[in-house]
Amino acid sequence: MTDTVTLRKAFETEAIPHMSSLYSFAVRLTRDSDDAADLVQETFLKAFRFFDKFERGTNCKAWLFRILKNSYINKFRQTANAPDTVKYGDIEEFYETIRDSSVATSDLEIQLFDQTLDDEVSTAINSLPNEFRTVLVLCDIEDFTYAEIADYIDCPIGTVRSRLHRARKILAGQLASYATDRGYLDSRGLQ
User: Fold this and answer.
1) Burial letters for 98-125: b for 16+ Cβ neighbours within 10 Å, e otherwise?
2) pTM above 0.70?
3) CATH number of 117-191, picked from 1.10.10.10, 3.40.50.360, 3.10.180.10, 1.10.155.10
4) Class at the top of the CATH hierarchy for domain 1-116
């Protein structure tokens, strides 16, 4: 009994503080607030279930993001291979009654997140290919280190740097007029 209580407290201390970061990233990944909430819930269920295997003193945030990524990939594979059997409208009322109240999943939440970046910036980020968008969001929005990102996406640090450079270069091209209009660059493209 004491081990369970100790494990629960350790989980609450180490994992729960990362919930909003996971949710923000899940919204970017799934592009749907309900799917993002489900993904985060599944991530935390798996994380709690295997928390006794988590190596204390290592990066819990990176561990949680890896679980989230693997859960997303697994769910994507299941969805791609399975026929549609249930319509969302049929289960919407049921979902609302069982949804965890600590994770708000309204359109307002997505709007607030997107308002931290202007619409043009948010649209430009969302238009990036997934491998570039993932690296950019993890580095520039979630403040992951290159090593943490490399571990998360399971590739060498050089690949992370390359993808990040390419993502930023694409964004710079897409947002040049935006930067000029807001005074970040002058008409010659200089700061």
Assistant:
1) eeeeebebeeebbeebbeeeeeebbebb
2) no
3) 1.10.10.10
4) mainly alpha
